[in-house]
Amino acid sequence: MTSTKYFSGKTAWITGGSSGIGEALVKNLAQCGATVIASSNDAAGLERVKNECAANIGNIHCVPFDLADTSDIDTLVGEQIKRFGTIDFLINIGGISQRATINETPLWLDRRIFEINYFGTIALTKAILPYMINRKSGHILATSSISGRFGFPLRSAYSASKQALHGFIETLYLENKRNNIRASVIIPGRVRTSISIHALDSSGHEHGRLDDGQAGGITPQQAARQIIKGIKKNRREILVGSGELMMLHIRRYFPWLFFRIADKIKST
User: Fold this and answer.
1) Percent of the chain scored above 70 by pLDDT?
2) Is the domain defined by 3-262 classed in CATH 3.30.450.40?
3) Contact at 8 Å (CB) between 253 and 203?
4) Which of 192, 183, 86, 189 is nearest to 139 (CA)?
5) Is the whole model's pTM more than 0.85, yes or no?
6) pLDDT of residue 223
7) Mean pLDDT within 21-34
8) What stretch of H or E contains 232?
9) pLDDT tens profile 234-264
10) DSSP-assigned beta bridge partners for residue 62
């Protein structure tokens, strides 16, 4: 089945839709005939993405909100359900990274990163889940990271928040398999996005530069294609990236080697 046929006529809600992987997915799914709800805290960025898809402009609907504040999320979701009737795919891409050691990171910053990466994601998921249960259909995805499978320097809160999503999504799947609801974790390695630029330092300010590893990664368009392939195949874990994904297998089967290699990898 082609991507066009798989997504045509379906509704997909994508967070982080104003840049990077989220933007690539918004454009790709709109071209496949899906109705796309694009969300981000960057309203202007969402409009830019929509305008760049002129041929599919009727398919993309910008719904800006901040993952750090989901106090009105039930109302927001209710409005979209009323408007579109259903949400077939929830693709949680939005999040924030970190560039600070543990001893430099104040507790309020740990909480902020968790508020965006974990609580913001599960708040939207919990608001949409009852509608999917009622329809006995839907696919929910959350974005982790290869450092969501292991620790990595300068990313303590980021790594922890992403590891928490694994437990949540796996539980969601086990509880709702009988409701015909699919659940997947997206695990990106190095992708050429602005995530390192917007990563938070120890003071809560943006890191402000593209990391070397990020610069050498695959493009967001390549990442989107890998994710779409994983969605169609209903993979529980969708690996996104290139050779760096080998670290996942090394960590699993040769932990002693992983720590030796990780200690030598440049973390910025």
Assistant:
1) 97
2) no
3) no
4) 183
5) yes
6) 98
7) 96
8) helix 220-232
9) 999 999 999 999 999 999 999 999 898 887 7
10) 38
Q: Is 241 left (phi over 0), alpha (psi -120 to 50) or beta?
A: left
In angstroms, the first-to-last Cα distance of the chain is: 40
pLDDT at 264: 77
Q: Are 4 and 32 in contact (CB under 8 A)?
A: yes
Please give the Cα distance from 71 to 125 (Å, whole number).
14
Domain ranges of the chain: 3-262
User: Are the beta carbons of 255 and 247 closer than 8 angstroms?
Assistant: no
Structure tokens at 87: 């949400």
Cα dihedral 92, 44, 35, 196 sign: negative
> Would you state the pLDDT for residue 244?
92
Q: Is 21 in contact with 44 (CB distance < 8 Å)?
A: no
What beta strand segments (E) does the chain contain?
A: 11-15, 35-39, 60-62, 89-92, 138-143, 181-188, 237-240
> For residue 157, what are the contacts with CB-CB under 8 A and spacing of at least 6?
98, 105, 109, 110, 113, 114
As annotated, the active-site residues are 158
DSSP 19: S
Between CA 59 and CA 64 the distance in angstroms is: 16
How is the chain split among helix, strand and coil, in percent rounded to 5?
A: 55, 15, 30
Cα–Cα distance measured from residue 93 to residue 116, given in angstroms and rounded to the nearest whole number? 11
What radius of gyration, in Å, describes the C-alpha atoms of the chain? 18
Q: Give the strand order in the sheet containing 60-62.
A: 60-62, 35-39, 11-15, 89-92, 138-143, 181-188, 237-240
SS3 assignment, position 80:
helix
